[in-house]
């Protein structure tokens, strides 16, 4: 199924009301990269929550036109996320630095560091705030809270079963 099943009227970016049809039109006008798509349609320039879906629509449309699509995670790894997952699992890679040294180049970026951090956590279940994993986390994960636009943080405690007693609420407040 995937994005091909969506109608052209489906809203992909709600921040700027960009539809699948708008993205298809941008591709027909010459857009071939996310940077060009962002510039042309403003998709994925607001909150960024639609970036993965916008990329899927872009790639799908390019493929339908016979254009080869690059699925590399970023410029530091010439592999897709799935390929990197396989490399980490098969080769027992335990750190970002080891993966970068053996299979990547450069220093890493805001795309590959959190992605590799997630891959490593899913296979090895190490504590994410260990020194070798700390730099891979985004701000929310480093501080175990959600950074707000005004620079403050909010914390949503996990509550098993979604039920909490007044006494436990008092403990959280302290």
UniProtKB/TrEMBL annotation:
SUPFAM superfamilies: Nitrite/Sulfite reductase N-terminal domain-like. It holds the Pfam family Fer2_BFD. One of its GO terms (biological process) is nitrate assimilation. Its cofactor is [4Fe-4S] cluster; [2Fe-2S] cluster; FAD. The keyword Flavoprotein applies. PANTHER family: NITRITE REDUCTASE (NADH) LARGE SUBUNIT. This is Nitrite reductase (NAD(P)H) large subunit. It comes from Vibrio ishigakensis.
């Amino acid at each position: 199924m995937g994005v091909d099943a969506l109608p052209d009227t489906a809203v992909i970016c709600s921040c700027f009301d960009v539809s699948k049809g708008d993205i298809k039109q941008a591709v027909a006008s010459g857009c071939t990269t996310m940077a060009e798509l962002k510039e042309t349609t403003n998709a994925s320039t607001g909150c960024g929550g639609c970036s993965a879906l916008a990329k899927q629509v872009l790639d799908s449309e390019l493929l339908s036109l016979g254009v080869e699509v690059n699925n590399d995670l970023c410029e530091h790894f010439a592999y897709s996320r799935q390929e990197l997952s396989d490399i980490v699992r098969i080769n027992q890679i335990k750190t970002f630095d080891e993966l970068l040294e053996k299979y990547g180049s450069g220093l890493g970026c805001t795309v590959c560091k959190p992605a590799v951090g997630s891959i490593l956590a899913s296979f090895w279940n190490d504590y994410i705030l260990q020194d070798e994993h700390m730099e891979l986390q985004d701000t929310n994960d480093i501080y175990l809270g959600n950074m707000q636009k005004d620079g403050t943080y909010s914390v949503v405690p996990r509550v098993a079963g979604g039920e909490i007693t007044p006494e436990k609420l008092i403990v959280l407040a302290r």
